[in-house]
Amino acid sequence: MQNTYFFTGFPGFIASRLITRLVRRDESASFELLVHPSQLEKAQVAVRDLCAAGTGTPEQFVLIAGDITEQNLAIEDEYLDELEDRVTHVFHLAAIYDLAVPQDIAYRVNVIGTEQVGKFVRRLHNLQRMIYFSTAYVSGDRTGQILETELELGQGFKNHYESTKYEAERIVQQLREDLPVTIIRPGIVMGDSKTGETVKFDGPYFVMRFLDAFSQFPLPYVGASEARINLVPIDYIEAATVHLAHAGAEANGVFHLTDPYPYRAREVYERICQELVGKKPIFTLPAAMISSALSIGAFRRFVKVEKETIAYFSCRAEYDSTEAQRVLGAAGIQCPDFHSYIEKAVDYYKAHRNDPEKMILVR
């Protein structure tokens, strides 16, 4: 049977790159891409770009106008019947990833949207695999070792992004009871380890934006925490996801796509300083002081950094990835070391730091 891949989250960066890898693996595959009506024109351009780059032909891609938050994903009944027989793999990537997102928006997209996708998946007659993109940070404010088998342990959450992704994963965990489901929990995603390419300057890129604002002054460390920060390049996420989508029963479960050997946040910050502005920090400011400053809207907008980012540089969680390493290691898929790709990441940032499409609007 020909593979038919159903995606939410297109024309997003990760979805587009996953599709490229899937076409390389299976040139005869077809793609059913659920797209919000507001994104249809952008999606049409994205498909043309994929085909122009040699990723498939226009006939392999179908854009479906729909909405994950609506009943039956707002797909017409007649076409929904066709999908029930045709779809073999579902990749659910659509979500609100903004750390500063209001609760009502996050809940509608991340929780209700996942609930509706789950109902759709249950209708499929030839499902081989559902891949759900969660996050390692469903662990919330827990500290210490976090296992792939753990989820509901009474944790609190640093923001509405975390809490709604946690609620969404609870829904998908229920699907695991009788469906072939893979839950992906990435760490903080960086750009491509070989090219530096990324779609948005968020996460650790906020550090680069902060340094842009103060590069002419002596640079501080932010806090004295010994916490480690878990960064993973996008190409590792892609390679792991495509492998797991075709790995059969051993892919049933939850996988931390995290760095098994993460560096201290202080060391990561220092290396970014050296690569971006050519000097090391020479003194330390309390993290609470920076957090208070970022509570002031004018300062936050000046440095272009979200307040919620600071918490991830003092996160005391350690993400065990034993199962991911076991399954992926057998296929030769490993997370690249941070120091092997940070120069590429900074070079890409330097080349595109003024691109408005890559900027996160900080309010």
Explain what the structure shows:
By secondary structure, the chain is an alpha/beta fold. It has 2 domains: 4-189 and 231-257, Rossmann fold (3-Layer(aba) Sandwich), CATH 3.40.50.720; 191-229 and 262-316 and 337-358, no CATH class. It is built from 12 helices and 15 strands.
Topology:
Blueprint: E1 4-8, H1 13-25, E2 30-35, H2 40-52, E3 61-65, H3 77-86, E4 89-92, H4 103-122, E5 129-133, E6 144-146, H5 160-175, E7 181-186, E8 188-190, H6 205-214, E9 220-222, E10 228-229, E11 231-233, H7 234-245, E12 253-257, E13 263-264, H8 265-277, E14 283-285, H9 287-294, H10 297-303, E15 317-319, H11 322-329, H12 338-352
Helix pairs in contact: 1-7, 4-5, 6-8, 8-12
GO molecular function: alcohol-forming very long-chain fatty acyl-CoA reductase activity
GO biological process, one term: long-chain fatty-acyl-CoA metabolic process
Protein name: 3-beta hydroxysteroid dehydrogenase
Please state roughly what percent of the residues sit in beta strands, choosing from under 5%, 5-15%, 15-25%, 25-35%, 35-45% or over 45%.
Answer: 15-25%
What is the CATH architecture annotation of the largest domain? Answer: 3-Layer(aba) Sandwich
Number of strands: 15
Helix content: 25-40%
Q: And the CATH topology of the largest domain? A: Rossmann fold
What's the order of the H and E elements?
EHEHEHEHEEHEEHEEEHEEHEHHEHH
- Order of neighbouring strands in the sheet with most strands: 3-2-1-4-5-7-12
Count of discrete domains: 2
Radius of gyration: 20 Å
Distance from first to last alpha carbon: 49 Å
- CATH top-level class of the largest domain: Alpha Beta
Separate helix tally = 12
What is the residue-mean pLDDT, rounded to a whole number? 93
CATH superfamily of the largest domain: NAD(P)-binding Rossmann-like Domain
What's the story with the biggest beta sheet? 7 strands, parallel
GO molecular function, one term: alcohol-forming very long-chain fatty acyl-CoA reductase activity
InterPro entries: FAR, FAR_NAD-bd, NAD(P)-bd_dom_sf
Protein name: 3-beta hydroxysteroid dehydrogenase
Domain Thioester reductase (TE): 8-238
